[in-house]
What we know:
Elements: H1 2-18, E1 29-35, E2 38-46, E3 50-54, H2 65-71, E4 76-80, H3 97-110, E5 116-121, H4 123-134, E6 139-145, H5 155-159, H6 172-178, H7 182-192, H8 202-212, H9 217-226, H10 228-242, E7 245-254, H11 261-267, E8 270-278, H12 285-288, H13 290-302
Parallel strand pairs: 3-4, 3-5, 5-6, 6-7, 7-8
Antiparallel strand pairs: 1-2, 2-4
Helix pairs in contact: 1-8, 2-13, 3-4, 4-10, 7-8
Amino acid sequence: xxxxxxxxxxxxxxxxxxxxxxxxxxxxxxxxxxxxxxxxxxxxxxxxxxxxxxxxxxxxxxxxxxxxxxxxxxxxxxxxxxxxxxxxxxxxxxxxxxxxxxxxxxxxxxxxxxxxxxxxxxxxxxxxxxxxxxxxxxxxxxxxxxxxxxxxxxxxxxxxxxxxxxxxxxxxxxxxxxxxxxxxxxxxxxxxxxxxxxxxxxxxxxxxxxxxxxxxxxxxxxxxxxxxxxxxxxxxxxxxxxxxxxxxxxxxxxxxxxxxxxxxxxxxxxxxxxxxxxxxxxxxxxxxxxxxxxxxxxxxxxxxx
Length: 305
């Protein structure tokens, strides 16, 4: 047991040094926030109106460094690692997105932050949607990036894609298959979901593979997908209760990934949707086309309401 704990600690200590991914600006600080039965690792920096950035699977909040560096000039930027992922605690449960929406609320409450803009990618879209539906007056603007929302719009058609077999891949046997092979498993996502796989750099691959190889991280990742059936129930209940919401929404898709389908997904839940397709990009917009992605998000957040 002691040896396992020491190994786990050594991986945690080494993880930030593995990579040469773009770091957050030095003005950012990190904070461990206990909330909703777990502890969330959060990066915080800048001054001004608050914006929350939520990452997806195969990455952590580290993906947002280029956007955070831009937004911190005139925003307070809050970047959590999702429950169980990155440097957040390995919660034993609560991977349904409704519960994780309350994680976000708890982080903001601890920081004494009220209204926010919200920028999300992949699983972050799903957590962000739950947070928004739980707090419909707390979000001013929303950016959704290249992933569906369970139970909303064309969800059932999206599930038919053979590329999404990983939605049902999980459980103890699958964890055993992947143990020690985390890089191989994750390379599949970074390669197949990219327009140009080389744009997801080797440094980024090493960085995230080390984080997902930490004890319990792959279990937490599989749990994010295993909760989808419950997420469908919860999201459809949200939509039935609150209807389509009217806040401004920017729906961004990579042209080699979700593309214009992102606007269709968003239009099923919101009435004020602007669609944008980023050229020469797959799913990994912040890695494949960071300049175009940052510029689009910045322009949207700067637009008066």
